[in-house]
Structure formats: C-alpha cells, structure tokens
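In response to reviewer comment 3 from the previous cycle, which asked for concrete evidence that the modeling workflow produces usable outputs, we include below a single protein chain processed end to end. The sequence was submitted unchanged, and the resulting structure tokens are shown without manual editing.
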Amino acid sequence: MLFPDEHELIHRIALALIRRKERLGTAESCTGGLIAAACTELPGSSQWFERGVVSYTNQAKTELLGVPPGLIETCGAVSGEVAQHMARGLMAHAPVDWAVAVTGIAGPTGGSSAKPVGTVWLALAHDGKLLRVWQEFFGGDRHEVRIATVRAVLSALCEAVEDRDA
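The workflow returned the following structure tokens.
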C-alpha cells in the first residue's frame, strides 16, 4: 500500500514523535483508516501511534468524536468546521499529543456543484490547539482521491512535527 514517499514521511514523523515522547491519533472519514494503516506499516509504530478512529457516518462522528449533529446539518459532513471538531474531539477522547482529521468525498458518487467529488477537508491539532484546517481538491478516481488525502495529511503532519522539533 505504501509508496516510497509515504514511507519516508512516516519514518520522519516517527523519529520526531519518539524523540519528543509524543503520540499521534487519526480521525478519518473518507480515507476509512488508510492514514492509520500507513502509520502502522512501520515496525515499532506502537511507540508513537496511539489510535485511529474511522468515523465514516455522521452518527459515528457524533458518537465517537463529539461532533455536534446540528453542525453536520448546517455545514455538512464535508466541511472545515466538521474536520476541526473531529480533530478536537479525538484530542478530548484520547491520550494523544497530535491529531489529524479528514472528511471528504472520494466518489465516484456523492458530489455536488458546491462540493464536487475530490473535495476533502483536513485538520491538524497539537496539544489541544488547532494548528491548521484546510481544503484540498483532488482529481482522479476513488482510490486516487484517498491516496492523495493520505499524502497531503502526512506531508502537513511531518512539516508540523519537524517545525516543532527544531
């Protein structure tokens, strides 16, 4: 499943988190656990990877991560507001120092003119603080959108972890 770029990113993330004695958690919707799977491909990942929550449905986002149902109704499950609540919810419910969250439309169905297939919202939090929430638009089929999402979040996480380590 991993490509050389992801392996290198994960290795760099692991080294920084181990050095800092910090742990990572993931809150995933459209990737269905691919970020957690990529992280745990690395031997010894239990030293720095705490858990992954797959919150694919709106109900799961609410029950597992505390995303308010009204927020999902108002903004939609694929929104920056929901992504940030997913990251914050994971940090509130798990012993993690870092949290990443993703919610999007991988396709081939489910898109609209306002939120086409390939729309993904990502969030990154550290020590209870939201560091970044951003939107990406990825082209390609379902597999390509999901892999691009994994790459984007691992890239951002690696940069953030290494910046804090410097």
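The chain has a mean pLDDT of 95. We consider this sufficient to address the reviewer's concern, and the full set will be provided in the supplementary archive.
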